[in-house]
Amino acid sequence: MSSGITETETVLTLDNINPHVRAAKYAVRGELAVKSEQYRAKLAKGEGKDLPFDTVIAANIGNPQQLDQKPITFFRQVASLLENPLLLEHEDLLTASLGYQKDVVQRARKLLKEVSSVGAYSQSQGAPGIRQSVAEYIERRDGYPSTFENVYLSNGASSGVNTLLHVICANPQTGIMVPIPQYPLYTATLSVLDARCVPYYLDEAANWGTSMAAIQESYDKAKSEGTDVKAICIINPGNPTGASLPADDIQSVLKFAAKNKLVVIADEVYQTNVFIGEFISFKKALRDLQKASPGEYDHIELASLHSISKGMVGECGHRGGYFELVGFHPEVAAEIYKFISIQLCPPVLGQCIVEMMVNPPKEGEPSYALYKQEYDGIFAGLKKRAYALYEAFKKMEGVEVGEPQGSMYLFPTITLPERALAQAKKEDRAPDEFYCFRMLDATGVCTVAGTGFGQKEGSFHFRTTFLAPGTDWTERLVKFHEDFMKEFK
Amino acid sequence: MSSGITETETVLTLDNINPHVRAAKYAVRGELAVKSEQYRAKLAKGEGKDLPFDTVIAANIGNPQQLDQKPITFFRQVASLLENPLLLEHEDLLTASLGYQKDVVQRARKLLKEVSSVGAYSQSQGAPGIRQSVAEYIERRDGYPSTFENVYLSNGASSGVNTLLHVICANPQTGIMVPIPQYPLYTATLSVLDARCVPYYLDEAANWGTSMAAIQESYDKAKSEGTDVKAICIINPGNPTGASLPADDIQSVLKFAAKNKLVVIADEVYQTNVFIGEFISFKKALRDLQKASPGEYDHIELASLHSISKGMVGECGHRGGYFELVGFHPEVAAEIYKFISIQLCPPVLGQCIVEMMVNPPKEGEPSYALYKQEYDGIFAGLKKRAYALYEAFKKMEGVEVGEPQGSMYLFPTITLPERALAQAKKEDRAPDEFYCFRMLDATGVCTVAGTGFGQKEGSFHFRTTFLAPGTDWTERLVKFHEDFMKEFK
């Protein structure tokens, strides 16, 4: 940036750029995250002796491999061969000296046949053979058919959500029902699109499950305001809440969508991060419903999303994901295809990791034992950390949180002392944001304030991942909270 | 898709989805490309004995590695280590038996230190150290300073264009000047944004250079229609035209932008694909201008884009790129940062390949000789093919094209016989589209009709890459054209 720029000198100013971009909010990588990066840079330079912490913990974002999580060996071994296929000419060396099993080599050859080169564009929708693997995974998972024509590979799940909302939002009256609290991708994208967010509150008292009363109320209000409600989004398992929905909740949402002619967008990126109960996909619930009541729910349109970023895979830097369309009109699907074509194709290596995620080594295959050990180890580690953090929160005065159910987050309620509320107001910050800044400054732990996700008026929360290893940082949190409560008592 | 869906049964129909998405056109992956994929699938299944060709040539899209181009060894060796860092524990084996040089290992270690893991999210704007490498490249290229704060890594150049247009287009009156013919990313994105494309014709008679008269005329017309013209896009070297702009043309555009307060968007993804003359960046031309006339052009805002997809790198499947902002207001830059944050970060391996593209092995380093040999070989091969295709076109009656200058395309004019025009009309196709379909059906060669890029009323063109190896396919084209002209004489 040249120095001395003033607003009147530049063509573009805050006042004349796209107001809908300007209105968008995305707290996950907002001011708190930026400040934490500054702390990190300071410490990296060997400065920051004055800081009351020696490491920054990015608990603001589900970024497993930035913290402790090791990538799954099978995925990365195959990826290394995809990147340098010349290694395949040394198969003996790979297997004898470098720890590559036969099935690693076979998978690499199969994927290379599919994509020619990970450096080449694929079809816009993703390589057909990889989409076929995804369809087979969905079939195995749900017990109902899926076809590769309905599978669209994407650049993480985020680009899938972006695509779906772009196509559905027709004008400023279009409304999309979004859970509150929610992952702010939804509200931010709706801002950019100048469409209406129709918020429905999740039920904190019922472990952040869906409340049909709240959904109905929100829908009625929107309709009464002239909103053309077109879709309902559900995040299951929940982000930021971690809630894992039971079958009844899912079927109730589907019935509501059918009755009110809403498209269902099911964000299921945490489908393998479930600690309590089992994950039920919206696709399975829909097919179950259709089977139980033939003819009654045939017209439901469902888009469900998945990703390589979460689960035990945690390959978010590779930007891979997919969505499956169910019941969409072929002409609308063709418009979705055209829209994604404009950005050419999702990263091809990310597509290949999608293939490995949905089709990992099977029992009896040479890489299976290690894969299973790593997968189960990551799962157990996440669960252990979730409970450790849960126990730490239980020790904190005025902090309440339910037992961890799933996803990668805890989202405790905090009851803040009056004097803290007053100080927050003085600093022109939302109370929970004020609390999170204090936490960052005192502990180096970066979280996201509840305001970033939405919450009931007068309630305060924060979201933290439970990805960071060790117990040191949770102890820092306990100590900080004690001091904070003392300071503002 | 369930069978038996009718429009009235689905929530979403062509008539109620986003009309701006529906209005967008993107011919590069349109009907012709879809038909060519069907031919390819047919041939792959061993069917298609009835077809008059035995291979499909995707000359519709600059996708080097789908055709013959081999990736550059250094890039892919480093990438293989980034994917499987455990290989770094076998450095002796890598160097003694697998062809990895010391500098490959060093680069991998350096990049891993920068990104922790290619499976982790980076900062939204891209990893700082990689942006630093880009800034240093720009400095070396132009002889003027650049700082990493102004560099934004992107998901190919396409996402960069998408970001810039999203932020600039404030309302339906916003106008963006776009060259015609153009790469349809621009018009498609403006359609989606419901902003106005302000087309200016390139001068075919002057090797598709810019014509200031045409730019002025287009600008005046837009202003007279109430368009709020905010930016001018230039693609240099040209796509689809291949034109490589001289310094005078570039400075004229910059002066025009300064005079009329336009942001300049310079799409420079083909900057190394130049056969005649030398590439001059808009950044360098701007700094030269500012140096020559101190104070006069200080307020120009320039965004220039580059990519790993083209050049001798050709790693389009990895989706990497960057843009540099010059002279943007910091508050506007902050909005750009927020916008890209919503999609989290560009693929991290793509970021690493950006780093290697801008900072390849240097003379004296162990990988330099092979790198240089591969790089020069690809350059020479592209040039050779460009000229072979040019010679083939010269043989064709009614086909005219200038000497290849740059990029990856030729964009010949075709003069079609009256009877061909009549037949096209009968089939409800644009004449050049009709011609391209006939070409595909007869030869298996997929190109893009001039209508997909825009052209002067009554003129017809098509764009073909010159990436496909061998001369067989150019001979197929010559033969097809002869038959076509005979049929419609």
From TrEMBL, chains A, B:
Listed name of the protein: Glutamate pyruvate transaminase
Domain Aminotransferase class I/classII large span(s) in chain numbering: 102-472
Keywords, comma-separated and alphabetical: Aminotransferase, Pyridoxal phosphate, Transferase
Gene Ontology biological-process entries: L-alanine catabolic process
CDD domains noted in UniProt: AAT_like
Coiled-coil portions: none
Origin superkingdom: Eukaryota
Organism ancestry: Eukaryota, Fungi, Dikarya, Ascomycota, Pezizomycotina
TM ranges: none
InterPro entries: ALAT1/2-like, Aminotransferase_I/II_large, PyrdxlP-dep_Trfase, PyrdxlP-dep_Trfase_major, PyrdxlP-dep_Trfase_small
Subunit structure, interactors included: Homodimer.
Molecular function via GO: pyridoxal phosphate binding; transaminase activity
Pfam families hit by this protein: Aminotran_1_2 (PF00155)
Family the entry assigns: Belongs to the class-I pyridoxal-phosphate-dependent aminotransferase family. Alanine aminotransferase subfamily.
Cofactor(s) listed in the protein's UniProt record: pyridoxal 5'-phosphate
